[in-house]
Amino acid sequence: MTEKNDSDIDDFEAPNPLLSKSDDLDDDERLIIDIEGFEGPLDVLLALSRTQKVDLKQISILELVKQYLEFVQQARALRLELAADYLVMAAWLAYLKSRLLLPEEENEDELSAEELAARLTYQLERLNAIRERAAILMSRNQLGRDMFARGAPEPVIVTRHHTYDLSMYELLKAYAEHKTREAVADIRILKKSVYTLDQAINRLSDMLGLAIDWTSLEAFLPDGIEDEQLAKSMKASMFSATLEMAKVGKADLVQKQIFGPLFIRGRKQEVTEDEE
Amino acid sequence: MDNHEQLRICEALLFASDRPLSSIALAEQLPEGSDVEAILSELQKKYESAGVHLVEVAGKWMFQTASDLAFLLRKEEEKERKLSRAAVETLAIVAYHQPVTRAEIEEIRGVGVSKGTLDVLMEAVWVRPLGRRRTPGRPMTYGTTEDFLVQFGLNSVKDLPGLAELKAAGFLDNVNTSRLNLLSDEEPDEEQPDLPMDDDESSSEEQVIS
Amino acid sequence: MDNHEQLRICEALLFASDRPLSSIALAEQLPEGSDVEAILSELQKKYESAGVHLVEVAGKWMFQTASDLAFLLRKEEEKERKLSRAAVETLAIVAYHQPVTRAEIEEIRGVGVSKGTLDVLMEAVWVRPLGRRRTPGRPMTYGTTEDFLVQFGLNSVKDLPGLAELKAAGFLDNVNTSRLNLLSDEEPDEEQPDLPMDDDESSSEEQVIS
């Protein structure tokens, strides 16, 4: 286990698999080859700073700037695509370098070159420190890797009993509401706007006795029907009724032109024969 | 590897496994020639008076909560629930129309009665099956229970207020008075011609709440 | 109920669970006035040399296999979560700096946080959003979860290894998220107007690891 953990840390500190495999190359070339493996300019700077083989606090910023600018230059020479981050850092480092080399001007608004350099060192140290912690963290014994929880946990079975409460008022209200709905439904059902054939035949039979002369079908329809649906239904049923009456020989029908009015005349067998 | 270490290994393997392990499977993790059976019975003895026991099930071994502590793993919870509108209405219909079949309830309500609705009412012990009606299909009829009467403070279902009383109490205010005569409970069969039933006959074979 | 019985109950409950249980949850199953802490340390001692240990993680208690037997059990665990370098680093930053914003993580690492990185950590339920910081832009802050503590065997984030040293070195001080903070303190927002924040204000209202 210790072995494994150690190798985890190694992995972590030498994150680029290519880097460890290309020992025969010199540092700079290795860095460029592995540009893809870097996690941004700070990562490159941290890797470069290791080549100085001193504590990060004692690092030569000027040397680091030189190494970084060379790294960027070579990467460009090899036509490697560099993300903007790397170029911004290069520009800033070039600026820092010039500030460090030139005699410092007194300017209260700006940080001194030493302060800027100290900040860069701080950032590198901070990243380095968190990486060390990350490695330590990952090398800890982990649950599910080094230790295991109960493989077949016995769950707590919760049985829920439901209780219900209902008042008499709620019960009766529900029944009343149901009855109310039922009543409303009845009213709707009664609004049937259909005039049946039987009704029409009855009405026509009753009225035919009065129709001694030719009478228009309209005259047989009841007055004052406002329901349009019902009126249509009546007309249709009455028409069917006349056909029915003619068929059984109780009425004569005449229509003088297509779509013209339909005339009906009662045919009271004995009476009509007598008259004619 | 000493005996104690072998015991620890078996203990850890059995603890971490998601299924019972055979002694053969355990032996694979131990030095050759280890007496797995002896280790297992030693382990079993070790847990004899613990809250967890090592048990042999179908020739395999597993840790299990001591049976006298199984109650720890069962929790009973009482939870008050509200009846749905459909359930309250169904309960009322059962109360007024009992004995009543599910199809009749559906006919009266004009909508289907989900299985859950009657289940909830039976869970609440307010509705119970009364027996099967002697008609084609032998449908189950339902009625109210003793608990129902207790819940609503009734001596008998006959004490449920009639429609006229409901109207007088203002429950039916929204109903057109001229239509009230349509609300009669007396002729339920007229509206259910497809559900032939003979009340005189059925009442003899069904328990009637008195 | 005697002491041994109380021990058995805690043993059974903890054994039956694959998650840590709080001493409060355990106390609920014991007679009032029971000294749960004493029972737990007795139980811990009982398992000291066993293949299974009682450990305190995330302020709660759970049984897990002894870490020295990892070699034995790891074989069974085929799928080990392999985190990317960026994810591991991000996890450490979240753990040590929480509550921390995405912009702060980016500042510390000197590189943008790809969307997937935080997602992976949240999917593993090691990282969770902690709420928005009350600064302009109201950025979301992130922190670690109970699962994180359980996974890494930590009782609380205060127990993170080397936390005190990081703090003493000033590495946990507020992170200035203007990417080019090296250039100037005065105009931090110019370079990253989309992530404005005022660290002085925020530190007072958020929990700070001490």
Could you name the key traits of this structure?
heterotrimer, A: 276 residues, mainly alpha, 12 helices, disordered N terminus, B: 210 residues, alpha+beta, Arc Repressor Mutant, subunit A, three-stranded antiparallel sheet, 9 helices, rod-shaped, disordered C terminus
Provide a descriptive summary of the structure in words.
The complex is a heterotrimer, with one copy of chain A (276 residues) and two copies of chain B (210 residues). In chain A, 59% of the residues lie in helices and 7% in strands. Chain A contains twelve helices and four strands. Chain A has a three-stranded antiparallel beta sheet with strand order 2-4-3. Chain A is elongated. With 210 residues, chain B is an alpha+beta fold. In chain B, helix 1 (3-16) packs across helix 3 and helix 4 (85-97) packs across helix 6. The model of chain B is unreliable at 176-210 (pLDDT under 50). The chains are: A mainly alpha (276), B alpha+beta (210). At the A-C interface, helix 4, helix 6 and helix 7 of A face strand 2, helix 4 and helix 5 of C. Strand 1 of chain A pairs parallel with strand 4 of chain B.
Q: What strand line-up does the widest sheet of chain A have?
A: 2-4-3
Largest sheet data of chain B: 3 strands, antiparallel
Overall shape of chain A: it is elongated
Would you identify the CATH architecture of the largest domain in chain B? Orthogonal Bundle
Summarize the structure.
Chain A is mainly alpha-helical and 276 residues long. In chain A, 59% of the residues lie in helices and 7% in strands. In chain A, strands 2-4-3 form a three-stranded antiparallel sheet.
